[in-house]
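From the pipeline queue, job 12 of 40. The input is one protein chain; the requested action is below.

Action: predict structure.
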Amino acid sequence: MSMPSVDRLQMKIFADGADIKAIREAAANPLIKGFTTNPSLMRAAGVNDYKAFAIEALKVVSDRPISFEVFADDFPTMEDQAREIASWGSNVYVKIPVSNTKGEFAGPLIARLSRAGVKLNITAIMTVDQVARVCEALTDNAVAVISVFAGRIADTGRDPVPVMSDSLRVLRNRPKAELLWASPREVLNIFQADEIGCHIITVTGDHLKKLSLVAKDLNEYSRETVIMFYKDAVSAGYSIPLTAKRAAS
């Protein structure tokens, strides 16, 4: 991999989160091409009214894609929620989990919504087989995002890059479906995803802040790290009393 450069990225970066202030800040960043949320992020951000939050977010994000997720566990109610969410804005993508909590594949629901023209974000995918089954459910020209949780795959000790590369090959028959590298664990993942031709990656606010480190001189970074350790030790008032023998020497 050559020296990384944010300016040379071909992939779209989506901001991931559910804090309105952070969404507003990200919306002002031209690097951010879209937004994703999920119920867990919303709960962590203290969101109490799902629709009210979504409508407020859409006031901030009107010109880029934004995803909101259904949270029912039975497919008929998922469909009702999906159609309601889709009605909130033309830039809304409806996140549908690849299965319900019983492990039942959401393919028939994905097919119905796809035929209805709902923009979909199929989420919580972790295998190439799941990607292939989702592709079979989508109409040929479906506008969709296929969210493969590469970070969670990596958490299991597996290399997610082959999974993502194989997923891209599966998606060739769905020209309007985009592969999203979900749950990155480090800035390096952004460049790994871009190198293989991934269409989108989600990033948190912490990762956005770290982009300022891209291509930083490592010798300087090393010295700054030493300075940090030194200052923290001094600020903490640490001392190591020396034995008399060593002190005399």
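Job complete. The domain at 8-214 is CATH 3.20.20.70 (TIM Barrel).
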